[in-house]
Amino acid sequence: MRQVIIIGSGPAGYTAAIYAARANLSPLVIASSVEAGGELMNTTEVENFPGFPEAIMGPDLMAKMQEQAERFGAEVVYDDVVSLDVSGAVKTVTLGSGKVHEADAVVYATGSAPRKIGIEGEARLSGRGVSYCATCDGFFFRDRVIAVVGGGDSAMEEATFLTKFASKVYIIHRRGELRASKIMQQRAERNEKIEFVWNSAIVDILGEEAVTGVVLEDTVDGSRRELALSGVFVAIGNDPRTHLVHGVLDLTDAGTVWVDGRSSRTSVPGVFAAGDVIDPTYRQAVTAAGSGTVAALDVEHYLAALGEAGAPADDASEIDALPTV
Ligand code: NAP
């Protein structure tokens, strides 16, 4: 049996692993079979992670975090959690391979998944012109006209990146002003290949075998028009990945896992949560990393108290209520 299992391998998961490993808790990190490293694996240059003044590529940053966690004794498994039983003192984590792991504590750091527009053509043409990852699929759109949907930092970043390949990139945004930070906005505005399409919502994506265009609805006057293009990159934010814990952990109105104040303690004793899955607001790599730190420290205190008390399962709630650092 393990002391702690960390589910997720983004900045929150790996930072929790670094701290837990340095505290001699020999953490097991369930990194996912196809999404190991989390959202930063889909980004290009990360310019705002402290310590990298020249920027660092997202995948390189994640490789460094993993290396750091493993150096101190974390074990990483490339598999997916298919079910969790956290009702008792011993937590059970079942993987896609069928392997079952047990631990005293679990850190839930599953991050978030790209949000969908939710229109018919989107699902039908996903992978055939509709994409959620510019770094994965941008290459296929060399000299094509494409669009990025969204007005946040992700949309600006993706659009700017995609101008390396595409002949033209529309940024389609539902409002008349952007949500993105000033520096990202300015970079996009200065790019001659980018054209903004304001106050417009995509209501249909056209094409049989591949995307041929979109139907736009003006969000001010309701009028509709078609725009010919061959790719749609959706960058409208992310939703927390809580599918494993519905009905298990309390969630907030924003859909994130509920935690107690500034701690990582969830509604279930011995289960801690960190990163994007608890954060409806900031969702930065560095805040996720900080959140992973909090989780590892909370786990450390929980396990220390558990050890001192020799507490049975039902007493764990009292231990969980102990103040942390
Ligand atoms: P975001 O900031 O939540 O922005 C989402 C954008 O998509 C908003 O402009 C929103 O429109 C639009 N949107 C949401 N739902 C929509 C829908 N159903 N249909 C059409 N448009 C929709 O998400 P994000 O850009 O992914 O950024 C998430 C976090 O990561 C932010 O904190 C951001 O700063 C951070 N981030 C940072 C960097 C960086 O610093 N390099 C890069 C990427 C992301 P409204 O504006 O009208 O709400």
List the helices and strands and how they pair.
Blueprint: E1 2-7, H1 11-22, E2 28-30, E3 45-46, E4 56-57, H2 58-71, E5 75-77, E6 81-85, E7 91-95, E8 100-108, E9 112-114, H3 120-124, E10 130-131, H4 134-137, E11 145-149, H5 153-162, E12 168-172, H6 182-190, E13 194-197, E14 200-206, E15 213-218, E16 224-228, E17 231-234, E18 238-240, E19 271-273, H7 285-309, H8 316-320
The structure holds NADP nicotinamide-adenine-dinucleotide phosphate.
What can you tell me about this protein's structure?
This protein is an alpha/beta fold. It has helices at about 10-20, 60-70, 120-125, 135, 155-160, 180-190, 285-310, 315-320; strands at about 1-5, 30, 45, 55, 75, 80-85, 90-95, 100-110, 110-115, 130, 145-150, 170, 195, 200-205, 215-220, 225-230, 230-235, 240, 270-275. The strands form 5 sheets. Strands 1, 2, 5, 6, 7, 8 and 19 form a 7-stranded mixed sheet that branches. A 5-stranded parallel sheet has the order 10-17-11-12-13. Helix 5 (about 155-160) links the parallel strand 11 and strand 12 (about 170). It is elongated. The relative contact order is 0.17. Residues about 310-325 have low confidence and may be disordered. Bound molecules: NADP nicotinamide-adenine-dinucleotide phosphate. NADP nicotinamide-adenine-dinucleotide phosphate (NAP) binds near residues 115, 117, 153, 237 and 238.
